[in-house]
Amino acid sequence: QVQLVESGGGLVQAGGSLRLSCAASPRTFSNYRMGWFRQAPGKEREFVAAISWSASNPYYADSVKGRFTISRDNPKNSVYLQMDSLKPEDTAVYYCASDVHGMVARYWGQGTQVTVSS
Fold first, then answer.
1. DSSP of the chain
2. In this predicted model, what pLDDT tens digit does every residue of 60-82 receive, in sequence order?
3. Ranges in the chain, pLDDT < 70
């Protein structure tokens, strides 16, 4: 069964932090590169970060580099996004994705809302 379930979104003030979690079914997690994307109101979905199965060489969008950290826990079939120094422009629905290649992905979660107030 293909399943990706995000959690951890919410409302936070600018400068604050949030940690997003994504629980995946083994079918959508094992051996795949995992990632996070986001979509702000009126904008297209954009890539945020991705991490390989071995957790080597995570890569980030320039807009979040140095502020966001992606990680994964393979025994728990989970991937995380630690978001620090949040800005109002980070406000978006954040999506967990599996089988990420470059800036596209095959499997998607339903998304979790992140709102950063100024």
1. ---EEEE--EEEETT--EEEEEEE-GGGTTT--EEEEEE-TTS--EEEEEE-TT--S-EE-TTTTTTEEEEEEGGGTEEEEEE-S--GGG-EEEEEEEEEETTEEEEE---EEEEEE-
2. 999 999 999 999 999 999 999 99
3. none
Phi, psi of 90 (to 5 degrees): -85, -5
Q: Is the dihedral of CA 71, 112, 94, 118 positive or negative?
A: negative
Most distant pair of Cα atoms in the chain: their distance: 40
* Total number of residues shown for the chain: 118
